[in-house]
Amino acid sequence: MSLFIIVALPFLGALLPGLFIRAGRQACFVATFTVSALAFIGLMTHLPAVLGGQVATARLDWLPDLGLNLNLFLDPLGFMFAALILGIGLLIIIYARWYLSRDDNMGEFFSYLLLFQGAMVGIVLSDNILMLLVFWELTSLSSFLLIGFWKHLPAGRQGARMALTVTGMGGLAMIGGMLILGQIVGSYDLTVILENRELIQASPLYLPALLLILTGCFTKSAQFPFHFWLPHAMSAPTPVSAYLHSATMVKAGLFLMARMWPVLSGTDVWVTLVCSVGLITMVLGAFIAFFKNDLKALLAFSTVSHLGLICFLLGTGTTFGAMAAVFHILNHASFKAALFMVAGIVDHGVHTRDMRKLGGLRHVMPLTFVLATLAGLSMAGIPLLNGFISKEMMLEEAVHTTLFGSPLLVAVVATIGALFSAAYSFRFISHTFLGAERDDYPAHPHDPKAGLWFSPALLMIPVIALGVAPFMAEPFVRLVTEAVVGGVAELPEEHLALWHGFKPALFMSMIAVVGGLIWLALFSPLSRMWESAPRPEAKDIFDTLIKALANGAGRFSRTLHDGSFTRYAAIFTLAVVAVGTHAWSTGTAGGATRDMLRVTPIAAMLWGMLIAATCFLVFYHRNRLAVLILMGIIGLIVSVSFNYFSAPDLALTQISVEVVTIILLLLALNFLPNRSPKESTPIRRTRDAVIALIGGAAVAGLVWTILMSGFPLASISEYHLANSYKGGGGDNVVNVILVDFRGYDTFGEIIVLGIAALVIYALTEALLNGPVRAKLLNRDFEEARAGDAHPLMMVVLTRVMMPVVLMVGVYIFLRGHNEPGGGFVAGLVVAIAVVMQYMASGFAWAEKRQRYPYHGIIGAGVLCAGLTGIGSWFAGEPFLTSAFGYFRIPPMQEFELATAMGFDLGVFLSVVGAVMLLLESFFRLGRRAGTEDSEYAIDIDPSRTSTAEEG
Amino acid sequence: MELLIASAIGVLTAAGIYMVLRQRTFSVIIGTSLLSYAVNVFLFASGRLTVNAPPVLRDGVDVYADPLPQALVLTAIVISFGMTAVVVIMALGSYLSAGDDLVDVPDPHADIPQAPQTLRGEAVE
Questions:
Q1: Comparing A502 with A51, which gets the higher pLDDT?
Q2: Which residues of A touch B9 (CB under 8 A)?
Q3: Any chain A CB within 8 A of the CB of B34?
Q4: Residue B95 and residue B101: Cα distance in Å, rounded?
Q5: Does residue A98 form part of some domain?
Q6: For the NADH:quinone oxidoreductase/Mrp antiporter transmembrane domain, which residue ranges apply (chain A) (predicted)?
Q7: Given Cys at both, which of A24, A232, A803, B104 links A159, Cβ 3.0 to 4.6 Å?
Q8: Which residues on B lie below 8 Å from A569 (Cβ)?
Q9: Quick one: what percent of chain A has pLDDT higher than 90?
Q10: Strand pairing report for A72-74 and A56-58
């Protein structure tokens, strides 16, 4: 089966449980199990190839320019982890089926579980470190969902948040490290990176990359000082704990250390850092675990300890250490998953996990007792069980490891760790199952149904088989170790065996087991000392830290982002001017190379009017009606200037936009206060004036410089001028640019315009359907209403003008391709003609006579433009290539037909629809404001009055 | 002439900035409209000033104004109208629902909860 399918199956399958839960819990379980089983079988089809030394790959370019590709590969290391993830995943799914109660949403649970499974499989099969990072973050996210699955428990939510924070932060560090690594090597492909050991270790960036990657690994694998999140994640449902903390999530960090072993390990920093962190974690975790009364808490700290052990083994940098690490990963996954499930069974049966309330369960839960004992003794490192073999190898490795110049230090620390480890394992068994049967259990304990004990029982097979005959696993472990080592060093001579002779490790083991028993015997006094001793509570520290950070961040952003829009605008203006000034002073601008145009008297007069109007506007800006009149003057002068400076199209557009803008603002003023109150202090006004003058002066200077210098680079306008007629079939170059050269641009713009109109429509609807509606209906008008809202003169005038204006619109539209005009201007002109009817005769009257919804006109316009563009495909040309021809139909003159006209028609319709829709929206607001609908076009109509009297 | 255009754009910009810095939505909208005049003329002027040479092809004429900035500004004028309309309806909506037409949030500290967790009834330890 393709590696893509193996990775994709859990992700795609994650959709199923949520659907199948509708058909019942059993159907949901079967669907989940089938998905996982398919992926597992798919993986197993690769087993012969993997054993034969082949590496399966699957490659797919995603973003090759960024080095981000969907490359997967399956080497023995990836295979081992994928098998653990999928295999133990199957057991967990079975277990969870019978563990979850009817109140738990099983569909949701299994969806999260499959998401997590997919992300984990993705990590171990990735051949691209960027892909790996994506999957890495996905595990953080999906584990957050799993840990916080019991959303009603505060501890669950807090634990999930803590796990996400710690592993997420580690993930960020990891991204940094991986990017550095990719920069050093010049490739993000894992297989390429793994071949460049010398290059990476010689690079000055090796140390930062190593530290960042290790931070990611340590947080994920709960190594000291990031170990504290793992015990808090125990508030998750037990199947989650069993899955995340035996075979998957926490092993991801170890996996990555093993994966990167060939290129990162072996240096002094690596050995010192990874070994000591691993040893500290191992001893600390084991020490704390012993005193935990909660079964799952004990197992949590024991997991921390075992992760430390594996971390230490990888840290030694020897091949024997790597082999021991690989073997212990396998063993730990088997016995720890079983132990978690046993803890869940006890919880299920007795309704408590507190060992102070347990004991003597051997009498009532014999089967559970057997399973717990086997797994527990394996964890303690008792011979004939698999935990013993790998622990012996760890001790053996410890003997040969020198840290901080002391050959003995590691051996002693490792023995102490093993001793504590044995002690808490014994305590787990004895305080739960041994001793006399009690009569105060919170519930009546009993052995569980097969669904719950099946999975841990199955795990006992490897626990015993590998314990008795470790050589069975040797070929596979060697193969995986070879993949870890990656040809950097020779594989060790040693074999996996039960009996190694009288070596130091054997004596250390004996010390650990005997010491563990003694330590357990001293439990009561030790526990009292532990309870009374002051110790830092990781959660408090974490919470305080997070709170301080959150408060700091809140203060920071509230200071910067205080809701004062005017302050942002002021800062923005000054910042832009500052950047511009910097660019000006550091760059080189050529001197004046162009001659000035002569100033004509009319131009000077217009200039004077513009300046005067603008100054008046600023000084009298509180009178809003006056502002609108002044705006009209400014707009007119701008459009006249466009005309003067050879831009007739712009002049036409500006003047028609001016009309609709003023109408729009007048409509808005209908609702807003007519005057702005005087509220700024003189200081504030002065400050604003200074800022405004600085900004204005900067812009004026910039424009002056641009206008006086020639083009620094050749303009593409020459091309447009040369090809307008030849390629676009039009004389009006501006119009040809709009509908042809840059037609795609225009297409986007009419869509934007349509969206703006629809936004306004939607906002109006929201306003009219919300509480604002009552306000609109009941509002008082500041000024008296007109007695004659629809005056006779205006109605008659607009009615007469309507066909004339429409004709002008059609004329402007048709001539657009060769003379100034076109769809934009024509659309605006036609819209004005229609708006005039609304203004003269009122909304209700006009609305009744309006047959086509404006939304539809916008849509028709966009469609028309789009279809014209698509039409060129049928001629085998790219989108929006125009064609044109000249036709002669007697008795008319010869005329031109161009496909661009279809496009321009689209522009025209969109503009008409958009302008009308948005103005209509404002009208609608006004209509609701209490004006009465008029039935007639004119309020006071002499002819109607007489007919009414007669009738 | 260039001086007139440069100074006119400068004055329009200064007026626009001043109006944007006012505290009422209507003034800010007027300010942005003034700024869009300034920006449109600025963009147009980047094609340099030409008199009596509209970019409409004629036989025997080979000097034309730069058509490209004109095409860009033409759509910009229409789009900025659309944007003005959106801002106006937003200003109207906020005035009608909030009862005032101030642009600044009156007291930014008043309605931001100190610790978001407490909102969900979960004690922060």
A1: A51
A2: 699-700, 703
A3: yes
A4: 5
A5: no
A6: 126-404
A7: A232
A8: 17, 20-21
A9: 44
A10: antiparallel
Burial label for A34, CB within 10 Å (0-12, 13-18, 19+), is: middle
| Residue A243 lies inside a defined structural domain of this protein | no
> For A619-658, how does the pLDDT look when each residue is reduced to its tens digit (9 = 90+)?
999 999 999 999 999 999 999 999 999 999 999 999 999 9
Per residue in A576-618, pLDDT tens?
Answer: 999 999 998 888 777 778 888 888 899 999 999 999 999 999 9
For residue A566, give the chain B residue with the closest CA. B21
Residues A639 and A776 in one domain: no
pLDDT for residue A947 is more than 60: no
Read off the pLDDT of each residue in B63-90 and give the average, rounded to a whole number: 91
Residues of chain B with C-beta less than 8 angstroms from the C-beta of A692: 13-18, 21
Query: Which of B9, B19, B26 should be substituted to probe chain A, the one whose Cβ sees the most A Cβ atoms within 10 Å?
Result: B26
DSSP line for A607-669: HHHHHHHHHHHHHTTTBHHHHHHHHHHHHHHHHHHHHHTT-HHHHHHHHHHHHHHHHHHHHHH
Same domain assignment for residues A652 and A532:
no
Chain A residues near residue B13 by CB distance under 8 angstroms: 692, 695-696, 699-700
Phi and psi (nearest 5°) for A57?
Answer: -135, 155
Amino acid letter, residue A200: I
Higher pLDDT, A927 or A88: A88
Domain encompassing residue A653: 562-581+597-679
Bond prior to A891 in cis (omega within 30° of 0): yes
- Tell me whether residue A719 is in a domain: no
Which domains are seen in chain B, by residue range? 2-120 (1.10.287)
Structural domains of chain A, count: 3
In a domain, A234, yes or no: no
- Tell whether A654 and A797 lie within a shared domain: no
Q: Is A766 on the interface with B (CB under 8 A)?
A: yes
CB spacing of B41 vs A680 below 8 angstroms: no
Hey, of B22, B41, B80, B117, which one would you mutate to test binding to chain A, going by the most A CBs within 10 A of its CB?
B22
Assess whether pLDDT exceeds 90 at residue A407: no
Does A750 lie in the same domain as A838?
Answer: yes
pLDDT value of residue A931: 55
Its ipTM equals 0.88
Cβ neighbours around A493 below 10 Å, total: 7
Q: Which amino acid is at A299?
A: L
- Those of residues 59-78 in B touching chain A at CB distance below 8 A are 64-68, 70-71, 73-75, 77-78
Listed in order, strand segments (DSSP E) in A713-820 are none
Residues A787, A875, single domain; the answer is: yes
Contact list in B for residue A708 (CB cut-off 8 A) is 2
Q: Which residues of A touch B12 (CB under 8 A)?
A: 610, 614, 634, 696
Size of chain B, expressed as the number of residues it contains: 125
Do A569 and B20 lie within an 8 Å CB cutoff? yes
Same domain, A354 and A460: yes
CA-to-CA separations, A945 to A790, A796, A951, in angstroms, rounded:
15, 17, 10
pLDDT, position B56:
86
Q: What are the chain B neighbours of A155 within 8 Å (beta carbons)?
A: none
**Co-location of A567 and A546 in the same domain:** no
First to last CA, chain B: 71
Instruction: With cut-offs at 50, 70 and 90, classify the pLDDT of residue B114.
Output: very low
Taking the CA of residue B72 and the nearest CA in chain A, the distance in Å comes to 8
**Confidence band for B117, pLDDT divided at 50, 70 and 90:** very low
B5 to chain A, any CB pair closer than 8 A? The answer is: yes
Q: Name the A residues in 479-518 with CB < 8 Å from any B CB.
A: none
**Confidence band, pLDDT 50/70/90 cuts, at residue A935:** low
Q: Which residues does chain A have within 8 Å of residue B26's beta carbon, measured at their own beta carbons?
A: 624, 627, 668-669, 672, 676
Radius of gyration of chain A (CA): 40
B47 in A contact zone (CB under 8 Å) = yes
